[in-house]
Write a structure and sequence with these properties.
It is built from twelve helices and eight strands. It is of the alpha/beta class and about 300 residues long.
């Protein structure tokens, strides 16, 4: 009933232990608290909270328009609804190194298990769009050092995302990405998120160059091929995310349902595509709330 039974500290510790095992962890993107609970029910390893999804949820493009307050608030709502660890997209940290430090502590307080900070110029762009620019190495390292120095729980995962692969075509961009990733690890990053890797061989090259856990972003309609969990596991990837997939599927279904309402005037033909009321009640643990009410309000008013 209500929120998760597992504390934020326990979730962070569990995430660290799973990552230390070397296995591949699957983190679908939750677009709201209810979808996070469904991700847990389906047996996944964690929840990912995408900045692109948070922006889209507000009707905004993913260009750095969201604020720390909005991101931390929504992250808290999602993270507290599941016993799974949740990793959140913290963009460029919402400002200079001191802002990055505050961002990490706010996200700790919100109950997240980890966050990634990227090396794009602010305002940032979606990682799979052209025209991105990255900051110089010194600035990128200051962001990560600030994040590491600011955390109070040593198990809070500081992940560094680098977008430098897209800045130069061919092997040159990959080499730059590997060099930047190594420097970010030296600055204290616990894990690396190499954005917009194009092939499985590029993921494998990144894996061979680093000793920390590596995340693969399997977002649709982007620059990366969509590899299976097994393919990624075979080259040693430790975390895979599908950041926007569940939102895309939900919005696609909503789009088709609205068209059906316009054309048929009823959704009777869509009933088999809907989550049944009984399944929704099970997901929100309706029975426990009903039992709680019955046990508390068990008196009769004397007349």
């Amino acid at each position: 009933m209500l929120y998760a039974h597992t504390t934020a500290e326990a979730k962070r510790r569990a995430l660290r232990e799973r990552l230390a095992s070397g296995e591949l962890l699957r983190l679908p993107g939750a677009f709201n608290p209810l979808s996070a609970r469904l991700i847990e029910q389906k047996g996944f390893d964690g929840v990912y909270i995408s900045g692109a999804v948070l922006s889209a949820d507000l009707g905004l493009p993913d260009i750095g328009l969201t604020t720390l307050t909005e991101v931390a608030g929504r992250g808290k709502q999602i993270a507290r609804m599941t016993d799974l660890p949740a990793i959140i997209d913290a963009d460029t940290g919402f400002g200079e190194p001191m802002n990055v430090a505050r961002t990490i502590q706010e996200l700790e307080d919100a109950g997240l298990a980890g966050a990634h900070i990227e090396d794009q110029v602010n305002p940032k762009r979606c990682g799979h769009l052209d025209g991105k620019a990255v900051v110089d190495e010194g600035t990128a390292l200051k962001r990560i050092r600030a994040a590491v120095d600011a955390r109070r729980d040593p198990n809070f995962l500081i992940m560094a995302r680098t977008d430098i692969r897209a800045t130069e075509p061919g092997e040159g961009g990959l080499r730059l990405a590997i060099d930047r990733a190594k420097a970010l690890v030296d600055a204290g990053a616990d894990s690396i998120f190499p954005e917009a890797m194009r092939t499985l061989a590029e993921f494998e090259a990144m894996r061979n160059a680093l000793e920390v856990p590596i995340l693969a972003n399997m977002t649709e309609f982007g620059k990366s091929e969509l590899f299976s969990v097994q393919q990624l596991a075979d080259v040693g990837i430790n975390i895979v995310i599908w950041p926007v997939s569940m939102l895309r599927i939900a919005m696609g279904a909503t789009d088709r349902a609205l068209d059906e309402l316009n054309s048929a005037g009823t959704l009777t033909g869509k009933l088999d595509e809907m989550q049944h009321r009984a399944d929704l009640y099970d997901l929100v643990d309706y029975a426990s709330y009903n039992s709680f009410d019955t046990n508390v309000f068990n008196f009769e008013v004397q007349r």
